[in-house]
């Protein structure tokens, strides 16, 4: 009797509950990926290294890569990502995830210009040829929510920038996609972001009603473009 091929697997490292896989997870499930979520700082990450998945997805969070004294488990996470990269494993990083990949590659991560809210990115020529090209359908608008930035890792190709933050997205061959911004967010989840980041919004002087209103206007279009973008990258990565 014929048996179906085993599904692929994805390990997801999540730093705060409301910053989850979103449309990336949708694209993965549509391809038959079994998803296993690990809470950074809570779950033992050794099984990620001991039993590698087809893809490692590292998500965002409000801490800094360089805060290893306050959050010592970051050292284990960086070492895990470094080993994954050395083994030529596929990795997607979003926001903090992109910063962790950069640090694992030996690049500097440091406080930069804070960007919070919906705004366009500017793709490079390489970005227009990459999976990011799908974001053109949403006029390149994405959700930004970060205060740190990073130097481009050696061997990486820059895919997108903003005027304030030059390194917004990069790729390392077909192995790595790293995004400083958040095309994975589902519009229905924005209220959780506004609640979870209320202190940061207050310190930045940002009215949550502004983000809520803009999400209602562009959120669905950006999420749809994000689904296509991640699907295109997964296709190119053989996943």
What labels would you give this structure?
eight-stranded mixed beta sheet, two-stranded antiparallel ribbon, 36% helix, alpha/beta, 8 helices, Rossmann fold, 239 residues, 24% strand
> Helical percent range?
25-40%
Please give the order of strands in the largest beta sheet.
2-1-3-4-10-9-8-6
What is the oligomeric state here? single chain
How much is the radius of gyration in Å? Answer: 17 Å
CATH class: Alpha Beta
* Pattern of helices and strands: EHEHEHEHEEHEEEEHHH
Q: Stretches where pLDDT falls below 50 for ≥5 residues? A: none
Structure write-up:
This protein has 239 residues and is an alpha/beta fold. The protein has a single domain, classed as Rossmann fold (3-Layer(aba) Sandwich), CATH 3.40.50.880. 36% of the residues lie in helices and 24% in strands. It contains 8 helices and 10 strands. The strands form 2 sheets. The protein has an 8-stranded mixed β-sheet with strand order 2-1-3-4-10-9-8-6, sandwiched between helices. The protein has a two-stranded antiparallel ribbon with strand order 5-7. Helix 1 packs parallel to helix 8. The protein starts with 8 loop residues before the first strand and ends with a helix. The model has no long low-confidence stretch (mean pLDDT 95).
């Amino acid at each position: 009797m014929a048996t179906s091929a085993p599904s692929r697997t994805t390990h997801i490292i999540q730093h705060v509950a409301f910053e989850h896989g979103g449309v990336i997870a949708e694209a993965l499930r549509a391809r038959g990926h079994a998803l296993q979520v690990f809470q950074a700082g809570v779950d033992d990450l050794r099984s990620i290294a001991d039993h590698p998945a087809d893809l490692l997805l590292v998500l965002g969070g409000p801490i800094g890569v360089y805060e290893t004294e306050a959050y010592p488990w970051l050292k284990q996470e960086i070492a895990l990502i470094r080993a994954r990269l050395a083994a030529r494993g596929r990795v997607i990083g979003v926001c903090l995830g992109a910063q962790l990949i950069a640090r694992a590659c030996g690049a500097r991560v440091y406080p930069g210009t804070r960007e919070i809210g919906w705004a366009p990115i500017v793709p490079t020529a390489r970005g227009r040829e990459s999976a990011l090209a799908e974001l053109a359908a949403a006029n390149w608008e994405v959700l930004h929510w970060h205060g740190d930035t990073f130097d481009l890792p050696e061997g990486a190709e820059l895919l997108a920038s903003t005027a304030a933050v030059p390194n917004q997205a990069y790729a390392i061959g077909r192995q790595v996609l790293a995004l400083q911004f958040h095309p994975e967010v589902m519009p229905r989840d924005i209220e959780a972001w506004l609640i979870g980041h209320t202190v940061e919004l207050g310190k930045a002087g940002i009215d949550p009603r502004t983000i809520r209103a803009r999400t209602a206007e562009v959120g669905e279009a950006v999420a749809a473009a994000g689904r296509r973008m991640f699907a295109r990258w997964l296709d190119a990565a053989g996943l």
